[in-house]
Amino acid sequence: MNSLLLLCLPVGAAEPDGIAGLLRNGDAEGAWEQARALAPARAGEPEFDMLYGLAAVRSGHPEHAVFAFERVVALEPRNHRARVELARAHYLAGNFTVARTEFERVLAIDPPQRVRENVRTFLDAIERREGSLSTRITGYLELRAGADSNVNSATSDDTLEIPALGTFTLNGASLDRSDEFVEKNAGLSVLHPFTRRHALFAELTYKDRENLETQAYDLRSVTLSAGPMVAFAGGRLRLPLNYQFLYLDNSKYRRLGSVGFDWSRDLDRNDQLQLFGQYGSLRYPDNAARNARLALGGAGWTHRFHQPDVQVSTSAYFGDEDTRDSIGEHNGKQYLGLRLGSQWRLAPHHTPYFSLAAQWSEHAATDPVFARTRRDDFAEARLGWAWTPADAWLWRVELAYTRNDSNISLYQYTRKQAFAGVTWRFE
């Protein structure tokens, strides 16, 4: 469609070996570079602006072409070709409403039949695209059940040594506790596009994990994320505002508010690069000494192999939680994390997968009780199998093993989990 409305190129503004010649020879990038170099001196000349706009369109910069053709139309209102090219540039830039108006102005001047047919082709394409720009709502409902060897992530040691106080025997509430659990999760996503490249998104996620016997460790979270999204060739950028409530045993445990970014770019058909970051505030209603400023950033990479059909993802991140109260300075920490995951499309409806995660953290100050600065080494492995008997349904089983080593024995633990669940997705 890029060449439907191209007529003969003007030559008055440049010699054949100049911009017009490069365009005739198919060197759009060369024409664009030369046009950009000449623009400071010649922008505003209708013949040059026509060549500049054509070079911009052909080299994939329609937003620059719009301004050039607008200058031509402003000086030469009866330059019908410039108006056609202006409409096409708006179309390629995703400005469909303006493009339709300009194309209809072209039809109003009763152009030749060939131009009318081409304009109708663009108008039909705009209708189809605007139909695809309608608001999209998707979501899921999920039910899972399983067993957890350590619902409270507690140590299995029955004694604890505290400097200057001696050795203490831990009671049942301070030791690891096993239980069965049920999870009820749901999510809703809304995407409202304004143009082919610009949209607003909103996501609401609800997670509820109830233990059958140890309700004191029931967890529930509500997370809202919303913001603008910009799509570009081979990638996208999202700028979310996030807010999350975390409840422990039906009581507010923590609030998180943050701003962030999530950028992804396809390097080629098999590789994608991601960059992400978050800056916000952690609030603990019942323990103000833990309130902190959160800063986190990282990068990820995904590669897909085709024989066999395997996808591998890896990421690294760095975080800093800086407490606001000097009394709780030991609660602040810095951490570095790594993640590796892979999934294998074994058959059309079966996908085994695994993931590995590690995080190394060091707290900001000496713990006043244990007289040492806490350091943790966290590791987790997950192995699962996903089955999709139909597009809307996902069944999954998963095993997980977690280990946290710490130089303070109270925070050292291991944890094993297993669950099976079903997810229903809708749109």
Account of the protein in words:
- The chain has about 425 residues and is an alpha+beta fold.
- It has two domains: about 20-130, Serine Threonine Protein Phosphatase 5, Tetratricopeptide repeat (Alpha Horseshoe); about 135-425, Beta Barrel (Porin), CATH 2.40.160.
- It has seven helices and 17 strands.
- The chain has helices spanning about 20-25, 30-40, 45-60, 60-75, 80-90, 95-110, 115-130; strands at about 135-150, 160, 165-170, 180-195, 200-210, 220-230, 235-240, 240-250, 250-265, 270-285, 290-305, 310-325, 335-345, 350-365, 370-390, 395-405, 415-425.
- The strands form two sheets. The chain has a 15-stranded antiparallel β-sheet that branches. Strands 2-3 form a two-stranded antiparallel ribbon.
- Keywords: TPR repeat.
- InterPro entries: OMP/PagP_B-barrel, TPR-like_helical_dom_sf, TPR_rpt.
- It holds the Pfam family TPR_16.
- It comes from Thiohalobacter thiocyanaticus.
- This is DUF560 domain-containing protein.
